[in-house]
Design brief:
The structure is a homodimer. Chain A is of the alpha+beta class. Chain A folds into 4 domains: 100 residues, 2-Layer Sandwich (Uridine Diphospho-n-acetylenolpyruvylglucosamine Reductase, domain 2); 118 residues, Uridine Diphospho-n-acetylenolpyruvylglucosamine Reductase, domain 3, CATH 3.30.465; 115 residues, Alpha-Beta Plaits; 90 residues, Alpha-Beta Plaits (2-Layer Sandwich), CATH 3.30.70.2740. Chain A contains 18 helices and 18 strands. In chain A, the strands form 4 sheets. Chain A has a 7-stranded antiparallel sheet with strand order 15-12-14-13-17-18-16, sandwiched between helices. In chain A, strands 5-6-10-8-9 form a 5-stranded antiparallel sheet. In chain A, strands 1-2-4-3 form a 4-stranded mixed sheet, covered by helices on one side. In chain A, helix 10 packs across helix 13 and helix 14 runs antiparallel to helix 15. The longest helix of chain A has 18 residues. The relative contact order of chain A is 0.12. At the A-B interface, helix 8, helix 9, helix 11 and helix 17 of A face helix 8, helix 9, helix 11 and helix 17 of B.
Chain lengths: 499, 499
């Protein structure tokens, strides 16, 4: 794959040497843990998107904020790029290192600073695992709502950087809707507090700007999140359909009926079969699609809502509807969905996970379009996704050992994202742009918008030292991508400014 | 009052003449309605904050987006500042005109473009009145949640520009939480779409950045908002307290009990008495404070929640608790709250309405602090506010005809806001910074943060032509304000950059 980070930092880098940087950091921050030998750097060469690998120049693993501040100040002074990494579970290569950059690993900041059950907030260091927040809040009857699939491992700092989602986001919002305050260090090592525990904040909304900024604006050092009361009860319905389009339409019908489910997930035949083979959840393997609809809240409401949803599903043509009779069966219903990705991994040597979003009403049409792309390319595509909020996760199955299949999978993936954009959606719902979707950003945004993004970035980091080459493509890249598609390092329009 | 807009545009302005600008605009946009005679300009000299008045150079009242685009392109070319105005109901002087600037009045864009009951969205021109959205959605059983007191008159474009709040924002969020997509024109006349009807959007969160940006980043031309289902039932409890602190503490206790009321409002004795004299709502005039707590949702829940809240209020020391028995009594309970501002206007020649926010747990302490400031200054202060989300609206009563009282009121207001900031809150919850709180921004933010705000502004509008002198103070102003307090035009630190 083409690795073109240099386009973003080209010319901005001072002519530093690795040995000099190492010596400088060892001298400036004597206690800072620094890795510099190839065998020590190797474990950090990729994040959850293992298809992209780059050995970092150096890895820094600070234990305290003083070390982070010194590191940033020195890198700023020396002109050395910094890529921040949390738990490294990201799926878009946002924490992919730079050959000529420091990888700042924040995983040691694991302290839960405070749980305030009255204000219903948790204050956390950035390395605290997502699930650990809900575990710490559970004794107070509270939990943290956003629940990415990686919640057992991913950290809250990374969740903010990627504006992570999850099954519960339909009802409870993305990370941005659940974060109240963030402390950051700028590339210059200056501390800033964004947002407040109080409502709103004057000035521009820097807190929202940081959510999903993919490590390009600053380093997150502390986070206050909202906690929600655990629902009194949760019930799950599983509906089978003999047609993917009918299932897609049922999704919109449920929302239109005035129900906001705690989760509303869809799986198609290939995903159902793979999951059933793997976890034996009792899924209907002959169905073309299933919907899993979780309703949570107070018992009386949930029962009412179950009746309403059942009626909507029947009208939409569901061939079978089952209600989980107890907590154990509910867990079984969910087990297939939660293990769908590894299950698909068992039936194909490789798969490529997409993350497009679309308006709900476009689900039937886009699902059809994906099926057509699958037929055309000969690559199987499994669909398993957050249907309720139109966040699709098509899994493109391929074999990297077969000549040209990786490129074909990437091409199909790109086309699926373009389909999402054309339907009024976007190229990423919860996985971020990172390194992976940098080219698709050019189909989502025009040159004026890309230029504006760069200007915003420059307001925080004029030297472009924080995570360069991710999230926002250069105009040169877009010109190139638009003119010649990927895999070509020649500039189509060298006269365009190289941000 | 000191009017120092020029600080913000000083040096940036080309040496234009009013007559030349008028002639240019008449020529470029022959159909554009332009006002230029003093008697025509007079009605636009202030917004809802009538204490500040400036006659605009010109007023433009476009009927279509082509006219807006041409106007912006010409003003950009000529270096003429543009202040955008919606319905003119803002309370912080955000739409205060410039002596040497065009006032762009968007009030003619009143079309409801689309109500989509399935997607639960409304697409609107910016001049659509807030209440008109809910009226148009009502036939589908839907409504638009944010409900500023001015909702009968204020427009959705202004709501976005100020990130407006209201009674329902505790449960349903501010404007930013209810807007999905905004179309804008930049100062260069370029069209951009921010956000999407689909979940999330890649790149930086420009939609959130526009919410509350007070007309400094672009002109809003179209808006898609979320609609919510009308609750099945709403009930209101009114609780009396013999002590303001006890009422303040009860607010936190209700939230801590796991209840998110549809509205949770507080009034102190002075506000209660003024309201009762005015609307005869049956308020307990001997009480030191009342809480109005509205619970909405499904009947069974609402009844449960009413019982829970009643228990919490009793434990918190409420001396009397009344439940509105029917819709008519509910309307009566609310009538006092909704008319509290004009009611206070009846007992004082002038009042100054503040808009600070604080973390809920700080309510008792800050209410005490306000009482002390009132005693010290001799000015009466009435408190009537969104207690649930810690958004305070102290009304400082004064008589502008008495020598020095306006300045004293402003001073007390400034101290109250500083109290809010010191308690971990902010200087504005829903009214915006505008012209009014520009000095207090210097106590909320440090020089690095202010510099960052200017850099963000410059990413959209490098010539600083859009609403200069509002929202974000210059560093020179902050140096001056910090060193010498208000009302002094001399620069304390002339060497500081003049953004």
């Amino acid at each position: 794959m083409d690795i073109l980070y240099d386009e973003a930092i080209d010319g901005a880098l001072a002519p530093f040497e690795k040995a000099d940087v190492l010596r400088d950091l060892q001298h400036s921050a004597p206690t800072l843990r620094l890795l510099h030998r190839e065998e020590d750097l190797r474990p950090f060469e990729c994040d959850g998107l293992a298809a992209y690998r780059v050995l970092p120049m150096l890895v820094a693993m600070p234990d305290n904020l003083d070390e982070v501040e010194i590191l940033l100040k020195r890198c700023h002074a020396l002109g050395v790029p910094v890529v921040t990494r949390g738990a490294g579970t990201g799926l878009s290569g946002g924490a992919l290192p730079l050959e000529r950059g420091v990888l700042l690993v924040m995983s040691r900041f694991q302290q839960i600073i405070n749980i305030d059950p009255d204000a219903r907030t948790a204050t956390l260091q950035p390395g605290v695992r997502n699930l650990a927040i809900s575990e710490a809040a559970a004794p107070y009857g509270l939990y943290y709502a956003p629940d990415p699939s990686s919640q057992i491992a991913c950290s809250i700092g990374g969740n903010v950087a990627e504006n992570a989602g999850g099954v519960h986001c339909l009802k409870y919002g993305l990370t941005v809707n659940n974060v109240m305050r963030v402390d950051v260090l700028t590339i210059e090592g200056e501390a800033m507090t964004l947002g407040a525990e109080a409502l709103d904040a004057p000035g521009f909304d820097l807190l929202a700007l940081f959510n999903g900024s993919e490590g390009m604006l600053g380093v997150i050092t502390e986070i206050t999140v909202k906690l929600l009361p655990l629902p009194e009860v949760a019930k799950v319905l599983m509906a089978s359909f003999d047609d993917v389009e009918k299932a897609g339409k049922a999704v919109g019908d449920i929302i239109a009926a005035g129900i906001i489910p705690g989760g509303l997930e869809m799986m198609d035949k290939l995903a159902i079969q793979a999951a059933e083979d793997f976890v034996h959840a009792g899924y209907p393997v002959e169905a073309e699609a299933i919907l899993l609809c979780e309703l949570d809240g107070v018992l009386a409401d949930v029962d009412d809502d179950c009746d309403t949803v059942r009626g909507v599903l029947e009208n939409a043509g569901a061939t079978d509807i089952r209600l989980a009779r107890n907590a154990a069966e509910r867990a079984v219903f969910w087990s297939g969905r939660k293990n769908a990705f590894p299950a698909v991994g068992r039936i194909s040597p490789d798969y490529y996970c997409m993350d497009g979003t679309i308006p709900r009403r476009e689900l039937p049409r886009v699902l059809n379009g994906i099926a057509e792309l699958s037929r055309e390319s000969g690559l199987r595509v499994a669909n398993v996704f957050h249907a309720g909020d139109g966040n699709m996760h098509p899994l493109i199955l391929f074999d990297a050992n077969r000549e040209g299949e990786l490129a074909l999978a990437e091409d199909v993936g790109g086309r699926i994202l373009e389909l999402c954009v054309a339907a009024g959606g976007s190229i990423t719902g919860e996985h971020g742009v990172g390194r992976e979707k940098i080219n698709q950003m050019c189909s989502q945004f025009d040159a004026d918008e890309i230029t504006l993004f760069h200007a915003l970035k420059a307001a925080f980091d004029p030297q472009r030292l924080l995570n360069p080459g991710k999230n926002i493509p250069t105009l040169a890249r877009c010109a190139e991508f638009g003119a010649m598609h990927v895999h070509n390092n020649e500039l189509a329009h060298p006269e365009l400014p190289r941000f």
